[in-house]
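Hypothesis: this fold can be encoded by more than one sequence.
Test: take the C-alpha cells below, design a sequence, compare later.
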C-alpha cells in the first residue's frame, strides 16, 4: 500500500513539474500578424529589447512597447513590428533582412511569414504564436505553423538561447576577420 501511495505521489509531482516547464502560445491567423489585439493577447516574446527610453516613449506615445536596436527605438504593437525590430537588433540571424523590411513596409503579412520561414536561422521562433494554415502559404512556407518551431518548454528556450549565442559568436568571428 505504501508503494502504491509513493508511486501515485511521484506521478503527481512529475506531472506538476512537466506542466510548470511548459510555456503557452496563441494561435493567430495570417491577417492578425500585424494586429495590435493579437499581439497584446499573446504571451510575451521570449526575446525582448527594452532600452533606457522605452518606458517613457511607450507612456508618452500610448504605444504598447518600444524596443531598442542600434540606438534606434521601434514601436512594437504587432508581431510584424516585433520581427521587424528583431531583424534590426539581430541582423546576423536573418538572410538579407532588408527583404523582410520591404515586406514589412508593404504590410504584406503573407510575404513576411514566408520570409521568416526561409530566412530566420534559428530553429525556434522567439514569439509565442502559432500561425494557422493559410491558402497562400504552403506548410513549408509557414514554419510558424509547425509545432516543432514553437517554444513549448524551458528546454526549448534554452536550446534557442544556445543557438542565438552560437550565431552571435560566429558573426563576431567572421566580422573580426573582415577588419
Amino acid at each position: 500500500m505504501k508503494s502504491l501511495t509513493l508511486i501515485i505521489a511521484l506521478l503527481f509531482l512529475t506531472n506538476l513539474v512537466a506542466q510548470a516547464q511548459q510555456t503557452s502560445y496563441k494561435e493567430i491567423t495570417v491577417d492578425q500578424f500585424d494586429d495590435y489585439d493579437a499581439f497584446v493577447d499573446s504571451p510575451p516574446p521570449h526575446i525582448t529589447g527594452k532600452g533606457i527610453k522605452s518606458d517613457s516613449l511607450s507612456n508618452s506615445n500610448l504605444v504598447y512597447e518600444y524596443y531598442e536596436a542600434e540606438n534606434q527605438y521601434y514601436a512594437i504593437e504587432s508581431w510584424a513590428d516585433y520581427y521587424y525590430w528583431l531583424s534590426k537588433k539581430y541582423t546576423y540571424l536573418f538572410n538579407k533582412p532588408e527583404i523582410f523590411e520591404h515586406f514589412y513596409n508593404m504590410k504584406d503579412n503573407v510575404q513576411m511569414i514566408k520570409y521568416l520561414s526561409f530566412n530566420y536561422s534559428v530553429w525556434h521562433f522567439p514569439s509565442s504564436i502559432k500561425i494557422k494554415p493559410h491558402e497562400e502559404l504552403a506548410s513549408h512556407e509557414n514554419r510558424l505553423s509547425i509545432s516543432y518551431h514553437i517554444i513549448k518548454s524551458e528546454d526549448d528556450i534554452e536550446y534557442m538561447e544556445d543557438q542565438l549565442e552560437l550565431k552571435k559568436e560566429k558573426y563576431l568571428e567572421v566580422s573580426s576577420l573582415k577588419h
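The CA atoms of residues 130 and 147 lie 8 Å apart. The first strand starts at residue 26 and ends at 28.
Hypothesis status: open.
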